[in-house]
# Entry
Amino acid sequence: MSADTSRVRDVTETIYTYAAPSLKFGAGSADEVGHDLHTLGATRVLLVTDPGVAATGHPERIAGLVRAAGLEVVVFDRARVEPTDESMIEAVEFARDAMPFDAVLAVGGGSAIDTAKACNLLVTNAGDLMDYVNAPVGRGDDPAHALLPMVAIPTTTGTGSESTTVCVLDVLAQHVKTGISHPRLRPTMAIIDPTLTVSQPAMVTAASGMDILSHALESYTARWYADFDAKQPAQRVPYCGANPIADMWSEKALSLLAGSFRAAVADGSDTGARDQMAMASTFAGMGFGNAGVHIPHANAYPIAGRVRDYVPPGYPEGSPMVPHGMAVSLTAPEAFRFTFEASPERHLHAARLLDPERRVESEVGQGPDLLPRVLSTLMRDIGIPNGLGAVGYGEGDVDDLVEGALKQQRLLATSPRPVREEDLAGVIGASLQHW
Ligand SMILES: [Zn+2]
# Structure
């Protein structure tokens, strides 16, 4: 008996982990950041934001509050929306020139928060950005030293970057979107103040909401933690697969979205819906920040990275882009059709959390079509483009997109089913049009 037990222990994982920043949530919470930074021992703070967010006045107002608490603040307001290696290196050079700091404060969307993470990494550790970017694109080095305390104040709901260990960027020379992932990158504290998100255009709310939804769905349907090979202590990764703790956050995030998503897109001033979306974003971040995401996020990298001339309404003119959340959503219905057989119960339960009145279920029944149809109905209702075809891709691009998605092996490893090249071709090929 004992021999059997130890053999099982060698082969399959029995352990999962949970980590998160400390949280402050609610209207007006950002106004307390001076006190919070002071409590963290800060005296001189690097504030990172982007030009669009800076134009709302929130970063300058927040910098003023931090100064009023007796701290010095240096502002970098040129973080790029959808950061590149070039834009992050510019931010890092600014930060290194302006050192020393004893805390980092990010005010903005995922792009500003991710740029702040890169600055924090490289003011505390030697070397260049590419030394830390995931291999094989970069060297994949682990940071040797602890980072500074970092506070993240998201001004768009969705990315979850305020609670994750990841920083995402485009590496221009290699035409690939990749990232840096390490537990040391996780912010120390996240301050979620829903009053900061009221100014979002409808398409920004729709795209970032689909990102929240995908975070919750992908982590809920991710490969179960115990289905991985057992790891040694030093091999433990932040993303350990679906597990009982991550499940709680994901399920609750789905229920919050069911009650608020359509309303938040339809009326940006609906503060009740905004509050629920902000909470859903945070909760989904607590889930996927520990469980991980899989196929829709892997596909999103080449979908966003190879855009030609699509410019979404409500985003800066003149710069073609498929926003992250939109890119994630465009193959999500077909991805969940593919993963259905790995855990039918989870897919059906997730669909019911999103469609508690079971309107879609009464049309398509309880099978592999249910979750895809719940998603495509929602996407149509909130104005997400109808498939990859609507953002400029055609049949002839499928192989290219598959090749790009296959590079995201770290994400594909979290899929509940093994994903072969032909599987991705099936998912992407069926995602040119959804309705
Ligand atoms: Zn995402």
Summary: The chain is about 50% helix and 10% strand. Residues 263 and 273 are 6 Å apart (CA to CA). Residues 244-266 form the longest helix (23 residues).
